[in-house]
Design a protein that fits this description.
alpha/beta; seven-stranded mixed sheet; globular; binds guanosine-5'-diphosphate; septation
């Protein structure tokens, strides 16, 4: 898929205020600092489209972007909320859960995983919750340029092994780099194939 147009639409903290539209939505989520904003900017080729986590406030909102006037790219808040205090953590969790469980047009959730790290409990538990709730998701291993190809392969295999312990069937997965644009075509083609499906 070529992206001819990508525009910011709305940020909000309330699922009921998301755009009233039936266009399919592809959402992106991951722990803060996983490389989500960089990936969104790389996919859309719009440098400042998604604000990085260093932009105050942006990381606690659901951000809708419209792409090619055909589908929405949705930037969800990061999880791993330890620093926000209990009340903030609960409201953010509710926001994310409401969007994921209630937004009918949410077609696929991309769960971002930092390819440099050992499998993290918080990510595995989150994916387990997605599976239990029948949420369609796929994985993107980010920052692949930071590893040698051997180490990258090892880390991904370690992750897939953990997932195989949890599930009979593995979710689709992609490997990306915002530095060298690895994975861009595969991820966009995947979205296109579902849209045309
Ligand atoms: P977010 O909090 O998930 O939105 O993460 P950001 O996109 O803000 O990225 C966090 C940090 O990782 C920034 O310093 C980015 O420059 C860096 N980063 C993100 N993606 C990549 C990547 O693919 N390769 C490299 N080398 N650095 C990355």
């Amino acid at each position: 898929m070529e992206i001819s147009n990508a525009e910011f639409v709305i940020s909000n903290t309330d699922v009921t205020k998301c755009p009233k539209s039936t266009l399919p939505e592809y959402a992106f989520i991951g722990r803060s600092n996983v490389g989500k904003s960089s990936l969104i900017n790389m996919l859309t080729q719009r440098k400042g489209l998604a604000m990085t986590s260093s932009t105050p406030g942006k990381t606690m909102l659901i951000n809708h972007f419209i792409v090619n006037n055909e589908w929405y790219l949705v930037d969800l808040p990061g999880y791993g909320f330890a620093r926000r205090g209990k009340a903030g953590m609960e409201s953010l969790r509710t926001l994310i859960e409401d969007y994921i469980l209630e937004r009918e047009q949410m077609t696929n959730l991309f769960v971002l995983i930092d390819s440099r790290l050992e499998p993290q409990k918080i990510d595995l538990e989150f994916m387990e919750w997605l599976g239990e709730n029948g949420v369609p998701f796929s994985i993107i291993f980010t920052k692949s340029d930071k590893l040698t190809s051997g180490k990258l392969k090892d880390n991904i295999n370690r992750y897939l092994k953990k997932l195989r312990d949890q599930w009979e069937e593995l979710p689709p997965y992609f490997v990306s780099s915002a530095e060298n644009r690895l994975g861009r075509k595969e991820i966009l083609d995947y979205i296109e194939s579902i849209n045309n499906g």
